[in-house]
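Researcher: Predict the fold of Thiol:disulfide interchange protein.
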Amino acid sequence: MSIPASFRDTLRRGLVLAGLLIAAGLPLAQAAPDDAARAAVAKLVPGLPIDAMQESMIPGFYEVLSGVKILYVSKDGKLVFEGGAFDVEQRRDLGDSARNGVRRAALAKVADDRKLVYAPANPRHTVTVFTDIDCPFCKRFHEQIAQYNAHGIAVDYILYPLVSLHPGADKKSEAVWCAKDRIAAFNAAMSGQDPMAASCPTPLTELTHLAESLGINGTPTLIAADGTHVAPEIALSPDRLAAELDRLAATPPTAP
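Model: Structure tokens for Thiol:disulfide interchange protein follow.
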């Protein structure tokens, strides 16, 4: 049984964070547990907003949620680690449930008129896909849009141009958004045609802030209805994605 590489990486970061905190010599022994934990976070990461703090499944630790960032803080405020705590028996990251909830709540606030929607008549599943017009794998995903729809999967696209990787993608996204027929313009752009330049008020800045707040830094990024971040190798296969969405729908939600 192996521990996922992503968890090993967060564990290494967590050990570094814990070492920094211990070295800081926080005088928290007399503080109440909740106050001590909050003070530890404030000293280690000044200004980090705490969205939620709750008892974790790790004895003696709180789970602290800031956006999709998870910190585990000992009740005496002396130990902190970031990222994930892996339950070997259940083979899951204990922070997944909290992160999924954050993504689910954030995406529920995005109105349909901020998306490009491709849906079959009676969808069985709905996914949100952050996409970049100049991203090769985004184009590959969109080439299969009819197959996703045939599997009963509705796709809600959110335009997320990564200008650091694809200079000009923001202008193309703006042109698509401002086109008279956005769907037709998006289809053409994803097939390699440059959209006709156009300018109008767009939600692109708002949606970029949303993506960044959710820790999304690549495209395509696919989020299932329950907030699960689906791996790219699954997302790019209509058959595998349909099977994964069926599995997620049949899996009872796990308590944080």
